[in-house]
Amino acid sequence: MSTSHKLNIKADQVLSYDIATCHSTDEIVSSIRDCITSLGGKDEPFIIFMDEGLPEAHRKIFLSTLEEQDIRFSLTLVPGDEDNKTLEYVLKVVDQLNAASAKRRSTPPIVIGGGVVLDVVGMAASIYRRGIPFIRIPTTLLAMVDVGVAAKTAVNHLGYRNRLGTFHPAVLTVIFQGYLDTLPVEHISNGLGEIFKLALIKDRVLFDLISEHGNTLLSNPGKSTDETDEIIIRSLEGMAVELESNLWESELKRVVDFGHTFGPLVEMSFVPDLFHGKAVALDCLLSLLISANRGMLEEVDVESVFEVAKKLGLADHHPGFDDVDLLWRSVEDATLHRNGHQNLPLMTGIGCSTFIQDLTKAEVAKASAQLGSRLRSPGVS
Q: H helices then E strands: how many in the chain?
């Protein structure tokens, strides 16, 4: 009788990717050229996927700067609305990569736009030829501080947010605050929702910065100041620190899951009316009240957080957060995602946190009622 054998293959994957802040379109294009050169790229055409919602002025400057620096490209416009964040659209992008004869290394696609477009093209790059490098340029505040740092790509499926996805970071992400100058205030507030989350759960200094200078981003988002630069860079660095030590999510207790337990199903139930950053902020406020009800948080901190939320345009009541059954279904789905454990991050102070495993539906119901009462009152919303 032959002897059974067992082979074990073990390999370590070294991963490195860059996030660069720039102050002009010339700097953006120079960073792209340097990246392409590092990948062995030469005088070959590249495919650019551009968010069709990017304002004409930014579009023209970016494309003309590429032409001035003799970078050849073909251009494909991609819709940036949430309805197109689907596997079907990812496969359309794959078809375009194939038609453009994109190579395994030296002709990375370049994607410029909001978070939906970055996710869709990033996921296409992750599965085309089993993965090719890509370059991303986020043009919304939310995309800069959230998708722009992440190693993940994702699309929605079966009514769930980001149900399908891959780990495949862009080889280069370029952040340029100038792209924010044409965004409506509600989209800046949307991005501040993710910054607000980071501040509450891990960074008191960032909380103080957005409390004092968040209005500057809201009123003049395209203007770079020392304070707005610090807000954005501190957000990028804070997220990067959390991700780098747990990039593949082998540890499912993640403080950056704060703000992402109660809101995902609410958000998907109200697309496109409820923005992601607004849903995150409301999730944070609900979580804050759960902490306070458990005696984990001082009332002075609760009032301070609600006041900052109001300043940033994040304290608007939404009926989805009154639906306790929907909120609890979101908790149950998050628990499945965390391998059967709630792993619910809760604040113990501004910038401090812990995890709990014993949240009850009754607690959610109580906090939901409190949240609705606060946000409906004239002093808050």
A: 13, 10
pTM, entire model? 0.94
In contact, 106 and 36? CB cutoff 8 Å: yes
- Residue type for 49, please? F
Residue range 80-94, pLDDT digits in tens = 999 999 999 999 999
Q: What is the pLDDT of residue 2?
A: 75
Please give the structure tokens belonging to residue 333: 């789905």
- Distance in angstroms (rounded) separating the CA atoms of residues 135 and 36: 9
Which pLDDT score, from 0 to 100, does residue 381 have? 41
Query: Do 259 and 281 touch, CB atoms closer than 8 A?
Result: yes
Q: Which domains does the chain have, with CATH numbers?
A: 18-179 (3.40.50.1970), 185-376 (1.20.1090.10)
> What is d(CA 331, CA 317) in angstroms, rounded to the nearest whole number?
20
Pick from 36-45, 94-103, 155-164, 257-266: least confident? 36-45
Bridge-based pairing state of the strands 152-157 and 160-167: antiparallel
d(CA 140, CA 144): 6
Q: Mean per-residue pLDDT for 95-123?
A: 97
Report the C-alpha gap between 35 and 337 in whole angstroms: 35
Please provide the DSSP assignment of 296-355 as one string: -S-HHHHHHHHHHHHHTT-----GGGG-HHHHHHHHHHHHHHTTT---EEEEEETTEEEE
Over range 223-227, report the average pLDDT: 90
List, by residue number, the catalytic residues.
152
Tokens representing residue 5 in the block = 């054998």
Give me the mean pLDDT over the 67-90 stretch. Answer: 95
DSSP character string of 128-160: GGG----EEEE-SHHIIIIITT-SEEEEEETTE
SS3 61: helix
pLDDT in tens, 307-320: 999 999 999 999 99
- The pLDDT of residue 378 is 58
- 133 contacts 106 by C-beta, under 8 angstroms: no
E runs forming strands in the chain: 18-22, 46-51, 73-78, 110-113, 135-138, 152-157, 160-167, 172-176, 344-349, 352-356
Angle at 355 between CA 353 and CA 361, to 5 degrees: 115
Encoded tokens for 244: 């780098």
Secondary structure class of 176 (helix, strand, coil): strand
